[in-house]
Write a structure and sequence with these properties.
Length: about 160
């Protein structure tokens, strides 16, 4: 697909690829993360633009301030005559050449309840759901790890 992306009335890029994800911090750990976007803490006020399989390797995800108004337009030169917009994977809207949508953060925040704190709850959720940075801990180095091996000794010390 081909999409023009405007931020606060200025054209910033042309997306050529499989799509574009526009996510809030809450949505950053879902489809945006799976497409290579960053995880954004829920207290960080922002919007993430994450390309989906872009045709340019230099098109990387970008974080915008929450005051940004993002306009996505299907240019008249688009190869496909229609583009599907999915909102949270549910509601679908069809855009044709020349159509555009605007995305902005709502002025009305959604209150949430936390068990401990936003940070504790968020990291616990990320660790539990994604097994974020979970791996077998490396063993401590010991002097036995540094035994001198003669050049004729074929054994390896790992």
């Amino acid at each position: 697909m081909k999409l023009e992306v405007w931020v606060n009335g200025s054209q910033v890029t042309m997306v050529q690829g499989d799509g574009l994800i526009i996510a809030t911090p809450t949505g950053s750990t879902a489809y945006s993360l799976a497409a290579g976007g960053s995880m954004m803490h829920p207290s960080v006020p922002g919007i993430i633009l994450t390309p989906v399989c872009p045709h340019s390797l230099s098109f990387r995800p970008v974080v915008l301030p929450d005051s940004a108004v993002v306009t996505v337009k299907v240019p008249m030169s688009a190869r496909s005559s229609r583009v599907m917009v999915a909102v949270d994977g549910k509601d679908r809207i069809e855009l044709n050449r020349g159509d555009s949508i605007q995305v902005a953060v709502s002025p009305y925040s959604l209150p949430t309840i936390t068990k401990r704190s936003v940070t504790d709850d968020w990291f616990r959720s990320v660790n539990g759901a994604l097994q974020w940075n979970k791996r077998v801990e490396q063993k401590a180095m010991t002097t036995a790890s540094f035994q001198e091996v003669s050049p004729t000794d074929k054994r390896t010390n790992v």
